[in-house]
Specification:
By secondary structure, the chain is of the alpha/beta class. The protein has 9 helices and 10 strands.
Length: about 230
């Protein structure tokens, strides 16, 4: 469904990504790993349309979307949960969820029951402000908001960052459920090795804006990957 072909990304004169190629298919989790600052978030932003691609292309369902604006990609079924969650702190949980309506036709502007089935805590906190939630609850809200858009590609940038272990297990369970449903591709950035290993169907390891390892999750060699994600 998603194919990234030899993309180069620059910030001014500085090259952030060099000839990166990767893919994500429905019913599978594609995982990107690496230390801080190697270009993982830049890659996610390039897919979501928040960072321009200098050369190469981002293809979605066969269409080159490299020049499309973020909202146009969202309308094509691409949802991005950024690192740090970015919930609206002054809006309630319900209002945060409703911001996902922006990319939907009027007839589809309702919150799917699935959001509350996957994250029951959100139903209990609908009137609470986003800024009053714990980090783990905010992460669940951010993923729930993305699911409101009915995505066919879900991009998750370090969903375990700063999250308590019990919530990490809940998020891992939700990602596995969404994958196993079979109608969604998931692109996951993660530094927590065990979390990535248990979910990845295919993986890419980056260093200094370049690919250093890639392959099937089943063939992942822990020692090789840890060389590039250990701090």
């Amino acid at each position: 469904m998603l194919e990234i072909r030899d993309i180069d990304v620059f910030y001014g004169a500085s090259q952030a990504l060099r000839k990166i190629s990767f893919s994500a298919d429905k019913g599978r989790v594609a995982c990107v790993m690496g230390r801080n600052g190697v270009g993982k978030t830049t890659l996610m932003r390039a897919v979501a349309g928040q960072q321009a691609v200098r050369s190469g292309g981002v293809f979605w369902e066969g269409e080159n979307i490299s020049k499309l604006a973020p909202h146009e990609r969202a309308r094509r079924g691409i949802a991005y949960v950024p690192q740090g969650r970015d919930v609206f702190s002054q809006l309630t949980v319900l209002e945060n969820l409703k911001t996902g309506f922006a990319v939907l036709p009027r007839a589809g502007r309702h919150i799917p029951d699935e959001v509350f089935e996957l994250f029951p805590v959100l139903r209990q906190m609908l009137k609470r402000r986003g800024g009053d939630l714990s980090g783990g609850q905010q992460q669940q809200l951010a993923i729930g908001r993305a699911l409101v858009t009915r995505p066919r590609l879900l991009i998750l940038d370090e969903p375990t960052e700063g999250i308590q272990p019990s919530i990490i297990k809940d998020i891992q369970r939700v990602i596995a459920l969404l994958r196993d449903r079979g109608d969604m591709a998931i692109l996951l950035v993660e530094q927590y090795f065990e979390f990535a290993r248990d979910l990845a169907d295919n993986y890419l390891v980056m260093d200094r804006g370049e690919e250093v390892l890639s392959g099937l999750g089943a063939d992942m060699v822990e020692a090789e990957v840890r060389r590039y994600i250990a701090v």
